[in-house]
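Quick one, T. Sequence first:
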Amino acid sequence: MSEFDKILVIDCQAAGISGDMFLGALIDLGADVNKVTSAIKSLEKRDYGYKNIKIDVRQVMRKEFRATKIDVTAESVFRKAGSELVEIVEKSAKNLKLSEKAQQFASNVIRTLVNSEAKLHADASDAHLHEVGLVDTPAEIVGTAVAMDDLQLFNAKIYATPASVGGGLFKFSHGILSSPAPATLEILTSKNFPIKGGPVKSELATPTGASILVNLTDEVSPFYPEMTPLKVGYGAGNKDFKEMPNVLRLTVGKPLENWLLTDEIVILETNLDDVTGEIIGHSVDRLLQEGAKDVSLIPIFTKKNRPGQILKIVTDQKNAKLLSQVIIEETGTLGVRMYPCKRHILSRELFSVNVQIDDVKASVKVKVAKDRNGKIIQIKPEYDDVKRLADKTGKPLREITELVTMRAREILLRK
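Structure tokens:
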């Protein structure tokens, strides 16, 4: 269950993504350009090996679309090794006193980038890198961290479309290769990020852009989520294609007003018609022990009009594979259906209520359900605690439940 006030959509399904396009789009959204340029200029240090850093931020047209373009150049005293790039980015983010999330983001992006090179080559941590060793790599990462912080987007729910990676051949330091570049493909593969080729014969997704993308995205979908759009920013790429505008589009919005919270679950199902009641009962117990949120049985008729049941489980995505295995092992079924599902829920919390009934003192756990605005919807004492108290006092369960509920409500109102 998550709660957020903003939504960011990274729309890279038309023209792909690069570090400069992403940073340009953030500036177009309203990020403080002075903060961004000042942060990039802070890389101009003897220890880092960059001097005479020049930053050009301007408005350009890409096939009749206005977009923001940022270019960063510098004189480099020496080529950078992977370990040096990591140190430069992490030190810069720390010295700029960025938020903890922004510092972690910058570190994750550069490490993802360097690790992809390390997997492709012998050891990128010590090897001198070529394209990613230029100043624009740390500049785009640090600049993006600053811009995201300024726009308060690290607290947003971030969606992305599948990334267009282009196609055809292009030439770089290692010779002629097909698009996407090996490092880009390695980064996207490492995070199982969906891609699509085209729509032009050109490199559309760069390693830095891919690394930013996979380290920000919470959910990938070809469609925009339900939201109220508030602002749109366009970041321009270097080339101008006749097939489409070479721009990355970022959209900031807010969730639709709803007093209910939402979370994402998985429904697991299988049909059973040749399993004994004892095995089904044991399977239900085992599934609950392994973390199922809910287990239910639905009576059905199966082949040849045999009576059977649908075994239905509600679980988290992370437990779906394990619970599918438990279902197959315990019931002998030949397959399990899996449905990703969203649900509206109330937030829930447990707290203990101290009560005294006659001479008996006890602590009873109470579950409180609230909507996203904090309004109390339901107060429910835990059955086992109430039953234990009813047994001790000899009073009806219904009466004990009402007394505990009333006591819990008094405490919550005082809070």
